[in-house]
């Protein structure tokens, strides 16, 4: 059973930065797509950013392009989400995903709150 543990969330003011981390429990981490998703109150979970197994390819939602950067360190079984220029609308629970949203694994989530 894969376990994913997110960390790095918190309460910040608009314009600030945060870096989220997600550590995976298993040694085959480097074989899988990793992604970050988020869910705001009353809204559906949405894709934020994704990265290929090797790290060579990344994708991000239009709403975070230019502000958020996803990266991974396969030697540490960890994926990161660097979030800059945070906005109140970025407030959500952020979830780490391994293997895609349909059949993959999820972390427990970390709360990010951005005050105006």
Structural descriptors:
mainly beta; single chain; 11 strands; 49% strand; globular; 4-stranded antiparallel beta sheet; 116 residues
Describe the structure.
With 116 residues, the protein is mainly beta. Helix content is 0%, strand content 49%. The protein is globular. The N and C termini lie far apart (40 Å).
Order of helices and strands: EEEEEEEEEEE
Number of strands: 11
Biggest sheet features: 7 strands, mixed
- The CA-CA distance between the termini, in Å, is 40 Å
- Proportion of residues in β-strands: over 45%
Overall shape: it is globular
The secondary-structure class comes to mainly beta
Radius of gyration: 13 Å
| Helical residue percent band | under 10%
Total helices: the number is 0
Average pLDDT works out at 96
Poorly predicted regions are: none
Topology (elements, then pairings):
Blueprint: E1 4-7, E2 10-13, E3 18-24, E4 34-39, E5 46-51, E6 58-60, E7 68-73, E8 78-83, E9 92-98, E10 105-106, E11 110-115
Parallel strand pairs: 2-11
Antiparallel strand pairs: 1-3, 3-8, 4-5, 4-9, 5-6, 7-8, 9-10, 9-11
